[in-house]
């Protein structure tokens, strides 16, 4: 049995300067109630890992608006002018990572690998400062793992032991981030009795999940 | 027919039966409108679906089913939802038959630049670097010039998306194939001469014999 917690309880666990992995792609598959609670509490200095910084006023964009993020590690900021403005003004650091590299770095962090070797980024600005390895005549970049203090996930449904099932394009980074943080908090849309989610449909085993957010009232 | 439709129709002819294809946001996404259903092509959206379909009917949108631009979409019969590791595994692992992307510049080496303009626009590369590094075939779909300047240049001045040579460049004026020897002009746009194409192109084009005009089925 997992404990179902309120969004405010979850936000209180997250200290200033925490390193957060948050699921989602342009706000799809993002735990919105958790983000609202973090914004309401207003603890800053955060490092945010997400595919993007969404749009102002939406998804993880709310954390940027509130000035809570010191550093964002993302693949795209093109649809968030607030991120661009803060980055140019030096109020916020942005590390742009190719999307496939970002997910593999998180995966590496979650599955105990020392990094990944990828052809993506070879011969581009992404190569700067990185080790280039020649493997059987082909060049690869050594990309280092990413791990967080917290992974905040969105899921279609959970059961009482924390097994998670996802929905359509709301999978994205969620199942990968579930392995890559010290504390994993999932925000399921539904919480079901054990057995409702077939073992074959479980994408994130409940053993990885520390807390479930209680259903919205 | 406007420039974008010419480009989309011509790129659609590159799509072969049974392919897995990724279309970028904007102009490249128009290509899907001109690919016949009987080709049984699957479109991938890198945010997590194989079997991307058209827009849903008004009011039937599902907030968990979007394309890589965040727009609401449908999924076709036989579709699969996938996480980002699977999605980019398909891309990087050589399982994606073709990617169609927009471009800011392409040069004589066939190098593409499409993810930032230093000091002006830094949207980030998103999935573009993985797509160009990993897809079996990389097609750049873009208008030939921007504000009167050629987007096909001797050497990219903007940061590259990948060190790899792209497979084909399709504009409203030309179909150009980057090769070891340089950029080969394969086709002319509707009503455009070889001289027109070269005049609008900063890069040197290799012209071999008669260059046919694009055929664009109705």
TrEMBL record, chain A:
Keywords tagged on the record: Transferase
Pfam family, one: CoA_trans
Keyword Membrane among record annotations: no
InterPro entries in the record: 3-oxoacid_CoA-transf_A, CoA_trans_fam_I, NagB/RpiA_transferase-like
Gene3D superfamilies associated with the record: Glutaconate Coenzyme A-transferase (3.40.1080.10)
Single GO MF annotation: CoA-transferase activity
PANTHER family documented for this protein: ACETATE COA-TRANSFERASE SUBUNIT ALPHA, KETOACID-COENZYME A TRANSFERASE
Protein name per its UniProtKB record: Acetate CoA/acetoacetate CoA-transferase alpha subunit
Lineage, broadest ranks: Bacteria, Pseudomonadati, Pseudomonadota, Alphaproteobacteria, Rhodobacterales
UniProtKB/TrEMBL annotation, chain B:
Keyword Transferase recorded: yes
Gene3D superfamilies given in the database record: Glutaconate Coenzyme A-transferase
SMART domains: CoA_trans (SM00882)
UniProt keyword list: Transferase
Single GO MF descriptor: CoA-transferase activity
Cited InterPro entries: 3-oxoacid_CoA-transf_B (IPR012791), CoA_trans_fam_I (IPR004165), NagB/RpiA_transferase-like (IPR037171)
Family the entry assigns: Belongs to the 3-oxoacid CoA-transferase subunit B family.
NCBIfam families linked: pcaJ_scoB_fam
Entry protein name: Acetate CoA/acetoacetate CoA-transferase beta subunit
Origin species: Rhodovulum adriaticum (Rhodopseudomonas adriatica)
